[in-house]
Amino acid sequence: MAEASYPAGGADDANAGLMQLIADGSLAKTYRDEVNAAARKVSHQVERCLLEATEAKRGTFFIEAPGNHKTAFTSRLEDEDMQIFVKAFAMPLPALVRLDLSYNLITDIGAASLAAGLLGQRATCLSALSLRSNSIGPDGCEAICSALRLTPSLRRLDMSQNQLGRKGGLVLVSLLRDSPELLELLMGDIEADIDVLVSLAATLLQYPSQLKVCDIQNPRISTLQEDHTVHLGRMLRVNTTITELYIGKLRIRDDGIRQLVDFLLENKALRVLDLRCNDLGADGAAHIAKLLVHDCRLLTLNLAGNRIGEKCNLEGARELSEAISYNTTLRHLDLNHNQLCGPVEKSTTLESLELFHSQWDQPSSYTFHTILNDRGRKLPLKTDFVTSEVGLRIEVCQAALVR
User: Is 145 in contact with 174 (CB distance < 8 Å)?
Assistant: First the structure.
């Protein structure tokens, strides 16, 4: 690709011109003019970001325009807006540091426009790109990833909740292989299949990578075999960079978590493990308990939406409770929607617990009423529920959890 052309004064004059363009508010005016020329609505979020960049006087700018914001209810960004973005921001592109266009109405056409005009070698400062929950397919994903291979500073990519399928998922894995400096890759809910999971695990196992955060939730898995769990486990056994792993809705069952735990016993880097909405029962809880009693470094564990207490089988919950009492590192635990309650009364180091959506009885309610009012705890326990004494009963009510 040809080098970016600069005015006669050279690169320094070009940088000074970019800083002046952002500092004097010309960039916001250019955007408004392009929107009016195209007879589109001005995005108040984009305008706010440009005004903030002007006030900051740092010589850089960012665009955060998520379509799920209350101000974007009637003005979500579409493919036509991407063409406006290219016209307005192509010149100051080297000063763009992050781009958030999540929850909008961008299709493959808009993705191709973005890739051609706002990504690539000239986007020298772009470190984060979010296109979560748009209408991008595998072709749009391929265009985006081809441009991102040439984007030197990219560290975070979120393509979650787009219908990328197997083809798009493999394109993202290929990008990861070619971008060892990538730190966060979010590709949950993209309708990936088992081939994508196996390829991802193989890539992280065989190629150098600095990836720290990986989200691969809710793939399309139709087999009852758990080969994907084994492949992920083998990778995690030797991986020393991933600190956050989100593997909810992977159809992991008790035997699968047993194999995964055996591999995780050798992993000392993982700090956040999200196993929500899998198929873990009492035996699965017992296997996780095995992990917690060893030299486990987990800080956050999410087991919501499993079946640990199904059919009043509390053996797994008891083992989990015992393990938590020995564990001194775990700080945040989510056990909602597991048909149980009260498995953490022995923990003194846990900082937050989510358990409201459980089967409460008076003994469990009283236990937590005592815990929440215990001033002798090393740290106060934050929960998604509160207890109150009403007559001779302890009532449990839902509450907002603030960490």
Answer: yes
Supply the Cα-derived Rg of the chain in whole angstroms: 25
**Strand 184-186 to 213-215 pairing:** parallel
Please tell me the distance from the alpha carbon of residue 334 to that of residue 163, in angstroms, as a whole number.
Answer: 29
Report phi then psi at 385, rounded to 5: -150, 160
Phi-psi region of 206 (alpha: psi -120 to 50; beta: other; left: phi over 0): alpha
Spatial separation of the C-alpha atoms in residues 6 and 329, rounded to whole Å: 53
Task: Fill in the DSSP letter of residue 313.
Answer: -
Bridge-based pairing of strands 393-398 and 385-390 is: antiparallel
How many Cβ atoms from other residues are within 10 Å of residue 55's Cβ? 9
Long-range contacts (CB closer than 8 Å, 24 or more residues apart) made by 26-29: 27/53, 27/54, 27/61, 27/88, 27/89, 27/92, 28/54
Residue 97 to residues 29, 119, 126, 166: CA-CA distances in angstroms? Answer: 20, 11, 4, 30
* pLDDT reading at 294 higher than 50: yes
Residue 260 · residue 234 · CB < 8 Å: no
Ordered DSSP codes for 217-249: -S-----S--HHHHHHHHHHHH--S--EEE-TT
pTM of the entire predicted model:
0.92
**389: helix, strand or coil:** strand
pLDDT tens digits, one per residue of 137-188? 999 999 999 999 999 999 999 999 999 999 999 999 999 999 999 999 999 9
Residue whose structure tokens are 């195209």: 38
What are 382's strand-pairing partners? Answer: 352
Distance of CA 378 to the CA centre of its chain: 31
Helix (H) or strand (E) holding 83: helix 79-89
The two tokens of residue 214 are 């990986």
Please give the DSSP secondary-structure letter assigned to residue 305.
Answer: T
Are the CB atoms for 272 and 245 separated by under 8 Å?
yes
What does each C-alpha distance from 103 to 136, 159, 161, 219, 281 come to in angstroms? 11, 11, 9, 20, 35
Is residue 264 within 8 Å of 242, Cβ to Cβ?
Answer: no
